[in-house]
Amino acid sequence: MGCIIMKAIKYYKIGLRLSLVYAITVLTIAGVGLAQDLQSVGHYKMLSTIEYSGQGQFKNQIESRFSVKKKLLSDDSVQYLISTNDYKPVTVDEIDTQQSLPNEVSFTIDPRSGIISVADRDLELLRKVNNQSVKTIKEITAKNIGKTWKQSFDLSAFDYSLPDKLSMTLTAIRLKTDAYGNMVAVRALSEPFVVKVIMVRGGIKDIKARVRTVYLFDSEIEEIYLSISVFEATTDISASGEKLRYEIATYKTDATGKSVDLAGLGKDFEKFVRKVGLSRKSLKVDKKTTLPYWARSEGMRAGQASIMCAAMACEGGPNPVVTICMPAARTVTLQSSGQVASTSKFETISSYLVRTIPGAGSMKIAVAPAAPFMGMGLGTAGAVVGGTAGAVAIAVDDDDDDDARSPSSP
Predict the structure, then answer these.
(1) CA–CA separation, 268 vs 248, rounded Å?
(2) Torsion angle, alpha carbons of 381, 387, 390, 392, to 10
(3) What is the pLDDT of residue 102?
């Protein structure tokens, strides 16, 4: 029995590195037995906001509490099941019929290779991005604390919605909290990248984008206490000066939803987070509209994939923290398609975080970028990233069928 217990503990430590962000996993063992019976549970809160301006404005914001169960299987792989009951369908006044919303997402990953073998259908893009990118991590974050370094991901195997190459600048610093002692904050800032879109009626349009992410880890870079990501895209496909913005934050809580106490982080963390560019104020909706097709498809696909790569770069280990992005994939799909009701408060994520996380109340963690994409026009971003514009996609009208688009690979 002693050998079985030691083996279970060994597998638990390996699996622990598979922290989840959009549902952060800092997990506790529910029991000790055979490896396939070993389970653990964690609790987290996720804030997600999508904003669009162009031919009108679109805004959807939700806050959700997640329960995350981890199970070690007999083949040494790790199964994650993330569940929430917080989704609220849109009212009958807003849509013809209310829809039954899924409240669970699951996937299975090999903790040694980081490869995801099984995932729900709507997680397929992120599964492919993970498995394509997990081999390209060059720098180990634990060896670069106090430094700044580069990390790139080769995404050329994909046919659309993603750049051929995604390059980031990373910085890691040591911090200390009153409750948890030493911690490590890691920030990833991407270079601008471009996704090219072939219009159905002819011509090619660019979606110019970038992503910024920050993670707050424990001192061993195994547990995640807080994550914040901001994705921005701009184009003129449906109107002049269209902008799409996606912000997401996740933090650890107890079973009741109470946040971890991050008192003690201080001004160093405030300055570190502000470069991520959380919004100071919420978008004002003067003319309500739905998201245009390019934003629901190419835009959000690029956002999810680039945030996943940023998460992998921040963790910088053999078992990337990318799995935290999986639960958010379904949430973003529901938000962008208008299937979930938005909160009526429209509080910015930055103000929500400083209000609800102990120790963050005195921080000013929101700051809008000085100019979108460093002031570059739509036609210049491809040159900045050295010709790494994304592969071609097909843009269709809202009434067109998704089958009109070319499938992705691999």
Answers:
(1) 21
(2) 110
(3) 52
Residue 188 has pLDDT above 90, yes or no: yes
pLDDT tens sequence across 208-249: 999 999 999 999 888 889 999 999 999 999 889 999 999 999
Helices 300-315 and 326-336, packing angle to 10 deg: 160
Tokens of 262: 């991050």
**CA Rg value for the chain:** 20
SS3 313: helix
DSSP per-residue codes, 64-114: EEEEEEEEE-TTS-EEEEEE-S---BPPTTTSSS--PPP-EEEEEE-TTT-
Half-sphere exposure of residue 225: CA atoms within 13 angstroms, side-chain side: 27
pTM for this entry: 0.78
Across-strand partners of 83?
67, 104
Q: What is the pLDDT of residues 57-69, one digit of tens each?
A: 999 888 888 777 8
Which of the two residues, 200 and 8, has the higher pLDDT score?
A: 200
Reduced 3-state DSSP string for 345-386: CCCCHHHHHHHHCCCCCCCCCECCCCCHHHHCCCCCHHHHCC
168: Cβ–Cβ under 8 A, 6 or more apart, which residues? 150, 151, 152, 188, 189, 190, 191, 309, 310, 313
At how many degrees (to 10) do helices 124-133 and 300-315 cross? 40
Residue extents of the structural domains in the chain: 49-64+121-404
> Token digits for 18?
């598979």
Map residue 299 onto helix, strand or coil. Answer: helix
CA 212 – CA 230 distance, rounded (Å): 5
* Residues 6+ positions from 279 with CB-CB distance below 8 Å: 49, 51, 245, 247, 348, 349, 350, 366, 368
- The string of DSSP letters for 238-287 reads SSTTEEEEEEEEEEEB-TTSPBP--TT-HHHHHHHHHTT-B-SSPPP-SS
Q: How far, rounded to the nearest angstrom, does the alpha carbon of residue 372 sit from its chain's CA centroid?
A: 20
Assign 185 a pLDDT band (cuts: 50, 70, 90).
very high
Taking CA 173 as the corner, what is the angle to CA 326 and CA 232, rounded to the nearest 5 degrees?
45
The distance of Cα 227 from the centroid of its chain, to the nearest Å, equals 9
Q: How far apart are CA 352 and CA 28, in angstroms?
A: 27
Read off the tokens for 318.
């053999």
Task: Compute the distance between CA of residue 324 and CA of residue 77 in angstroms, rounded to an integer.
Answer: 16
The CA distance from 105 to 281, in Å, is 31
pLDDT given for residue 358 in this prediction = 93
